[in-house]
Amino acid sequence: MRGDRARRIVTSRTRQTRNESNKVCEQERGKRILQVRRSEMEKMQRKTELRVFFIMSYRLFLWLLTVSLPLVYVHGNTVTQLTMENLDPTLKSAQVVFVAFCADWCPFSRRLKPIFEESAAAWYRDNPQSSVVWALVDSVAQANVADKYAVTKYPTMKIFVNGELILREYRGSRSVEALTAFVKQHLQTSIQEFGSIEQLNAGLDKSKRNVIGYFHCRDCPEYRNFQKAAALYREDCAFWSGTNEAIKAMQGNMLVFKDPSTESDIQFSGKFADFEFVKEWIQDKCIPLVREVTFENVEELTEEGLPFLIFFRDPANKNDDKFFTELVMREIPDQRIAINALLADGHKFAHPLKHLGKTAKDLPVLAIDSFQHMFLFPNMSELNLPGKLRQFVQDLQTGKLHKEFHETLDQRVAELQKTLEQQQIEGEPRPPGQIPVDTTLKPSIFKELKPSDKRYSILQKTEL
């Protein structure tokens, strides 16, 4: 009995031990399964994270590919292809951006393109650290870019400094040397420094328009605005900046314009931190209401599209310059956007004078060239009378000058024909004073000085 009981106890304990062992095994197996599942979940999570990372990276790559600068590789260097998408970022990316607007159908563009690309390659090779971008615009595929900058001929080359368009485009030689020299010029500072008032006075060319800045800081928005504006109008004004010694007596920043015609000083009274304000003030002072037309700038002036109000005079007579400038400022200061008031050397521009029936002996002579016809101011002795100049300009704008010519044309032709017939009947020539003067309306001379079709492909637009 005792033996059976002992066996039962042993058997029971064995079963209990086995059950406990099984439980432990189940627990261990459960832990292993849990660890495997957790490991699989972690792997899946890592795969998901990697997938998301690659997707986001790919999307970022596509975005950068779209927004970043498409590049044409030239001898290991790059020329940027401008589009509306990358235009603003490109203009802001460098101190100087030189842009050529071309069209594949234009033979002059096709000739320029390899020269422009070679110029860019030479520039990047010689100036690898410079803040310069050379860019091309396919003006057919990117018509919006060309239209934004009023491109009317191909090729047209424009330069941007600190993101701002320089009004004067490049019209020089289309060679590697000339193009790179042009970029180098605009990369250089346009401001001359002086250490004392004596040094300034010794360096000033009083025949030029001078802008003088006195700034107590160089690494500040006020001075940087002055620098940016000076870069835009470097060809219109001479810019000066005083160093520490020259500005010790100054209480604050100061900007002064010296007018060569009046020899007076005009001080800037706006906010130096407002770039647009500074730029407009300098533009107003550096680009005068009355400019000089020369054979060097006449092409550029014709492209502004405004009729010419031309005062032909002897440049040696400075009183005539002063008279006409003051007359324009007094009579038509509001017509700056409607007509170009210009001084012209009557000796150099003898051909337009001859076209009007005048010579150097008749100087000064005033005329309007509308790029269709030329209209002569009828009586120079009345030019200084109040309202006469303004009426002359307004008669052009209203069409009165053209209308009056056509209204009296038939009468003048009839008078001339009658005189000729009378001569034939009488058989004797009449004195010149009795023969009606030929007052035929003269066609424009200055339209012939517009950009040449031997150098550009001109767009035929109605506004021209």
From TrEMBL:
<dbReference type="Pfam" id="PF00085">
    <property type="entry name" value="Thioredoxin"/>
</dbReference>
<keyword id="KW-1133">Transmembrane helix</keyword>
<feature type="domain" description="Thioredoxin">
    <location>
        <begin position="60"/>
        <end position="188"/>
    </location>
</feature>
<keyword id="KW-0812">Transmembrane</keyword>
<protein>
    <submittedName>
        <fullName>Thioredoxin domain-containing protein</fullName>
    </submittedName>
</protein>
<keyword id="KW-0472">Membrane</keyword>
<dbReference type="Pfam" id="PF13848">
    <property type="entry name" value="Thioredoxin_6"/>
</dbReference>
<dbReference type="GO" id="GO:0006457">
    <property type="term" value="P:protein folding"/>
</dbReference>
<dbReference type="GO" id="GO:0003756">
    <property type="term" value="F:protein disulfide isomerase activity"/>
</dbReference>
<dbReference type="InterPro" id="IPR013766">
    <property type="entry name" value="Thioredoxin_domain"/>
</dbReference>
<dbReference type="GO" id="GO:0005789">
    <property type="term" value="C:endoplasmic reticulum membrane"/>
</dbReference>
<dbReference type="InterPro" id="IPR052643">
    <property type="entry name" value="ERP44"/>
</dbReference>
<dbReference type="GO" id="GO:0005793">
    <property type="term" value="C:endoplasmic reticulum-Golgi intermediate compartment"/>
</dbReference>
<feature type="transmembrane region" description="Helical">
    <location>
        <begin position="52"/>
        <end position="74"/>
    </location>
</feature>
<dbReference type="InterPro" id="IPR036249">
    <property type="entry name" value="Thioredoxin-like_sf"/>
</dbReference>
